[in-house]
Amino acid sequence: MVIRIAAVGDVHLDEDVVGRFRPALEELPGCADVLLLAGDLTRHGTEAEARCVAREFGDLGVPVITVLGNHDHQCDEVPQVVKVLEDAGITVLEGTGTVVDTPGGRLGVAGVKGFGGGFAGRCASDFGEPEMKAFVRTTRESADALTDALLALECDALVALTHYSPVPDTLAGEPLEIYPFLGSYQLGQAIDSAPTALALHGHAHHGTERGTTPGGVRVRNVAHPVIKQAYSVFHLGGDQLD
Fold first, then answer.
1. Distance (Å, rounded) from C-alpha 53 to C-alpha 81?
2. How many Å apart are CA 31 and CA 122, to the nearest integer?
3. pTM recorded for the entire structure
4. CA-CA distance, 10 to 114, in Å (whole number)?
5. Residue-wise DSSP of 142-202
6. CA of 37: how far to CAs of 1, 12, 129, 202, 231, in Å?
7. pLDDT, position 132
8. How does strand 64-67 pair with strand 34-38?
9. Which residues, 6 or more positions from 9, have their beta carbon under 8 angstroms from its beta carbon?
10. What does the DSSP assignment read for the chain?
11. 185-192 vs 130-152: helix crossing angle, rounded to 10
């Protein structure tokens, strides 16, 4: 049996672009069992922009699950943004998980926004100024929350959903200087701590689509500027991933 997962991130909706994705989204029930959104749903994280997201991604005929991104935090209206999305039937994850029954089996999705920090050999360390230690502590706490959420789910197939990248592979094309602000190896460790079948993220607009964690989990960057379509669809079952 196969579970069909549609995914996209970094749609950056506001009133000016509402409707851009909707024609393709209307076709989702015929090609996917669930839609996962990898953060940066809005431009500036306002309640008004969240209502645009609700109009675009609400009532699609398939479950919609999301994490927030850094843009969704910009205006410090996260509680309002989350409420608007949840009122539209969109599940918002942050250190939490959910299980969806699909014709191909029970799909578990665990999600966090994630944070920066960098990757092996080129990462920030929990040392020095309080500001640096707070930065690294945020990354670690996010990764720990993802670990806990992944391990708590009982399902047939397990997916990790983040905004920040868990691997450097999918950042290829971005300037090396900003890798520490695009993701963290600790997210990759969290993904490898569970029997994760697939990891999806956004954030890296100039990155690469495909990567792999050190433990062999397949990673896909689904940022809209990378996939250049309304969503990608992954067929998850056995050892297959399309």
1. 10
2. 40
3. 0.96
4. 15
5. HHHHHHHHHHH---SEEEEEESSBSSSGGGBTB-GGGGGGTBBHHHHHHHHTTT--EEEE-
6. 23, 11, 35, 9, 9
7. 86
8. parallel
9. 37, 38, 39, 40, 69, 163, 200, 201, 202, 203, 222, 223, 224
10. --EEEEEEB---B-TTTTTSSHHHHTTHHHH-SEEEEES--BSS--HHHHHHHHHHHSS-SS-EEEE--SGGGTTS-HHHHHHHHHHTTEEE-SSEEEEEEETTEEEEEEEE-----EETTEE--S-SSHHHHHHHHHHHHHHHHHHHHHHH---SEEEEEESSBSSSGGGBTB-GGGGGGTBBHHHHHHHHTTT--EEEE---TTS-SEEE-TT--EEEE-BHHHH-SS-EEEEEETTEE-
11. 20
Tokens standing for residue 161 = 């959903």
One-letter amino acid at 91 equals T
Asked if 134 and 178 count as a contact pair (C-beta separation under 8 A), the reply is: no
Closest CA relative to residue 191, chosen from 124, 144, 135, 139: 144
Contact 207, 183 (CB under 8 A): no
Query: Strands 218-221 and 210-212, how do they pair?
Result: antiparallel
pLDDT, tens only, 184-211:
999 999 999 999 999 999 999 999 999 9
pLDDT, tens only, 66-99 = 999 999 999 999 999 999 999 999 999 999 999 9
Q: Which among 91, 52, 87 has a CA at the least distance from the CA of 71?
A: 52
Burial of 67 (0-12, 13-18, 19+ CB in 10 A): buried
Residue 131 burial (C-beta neighbours within 10 Å; 0-12, 13-18, 19+) = exposed
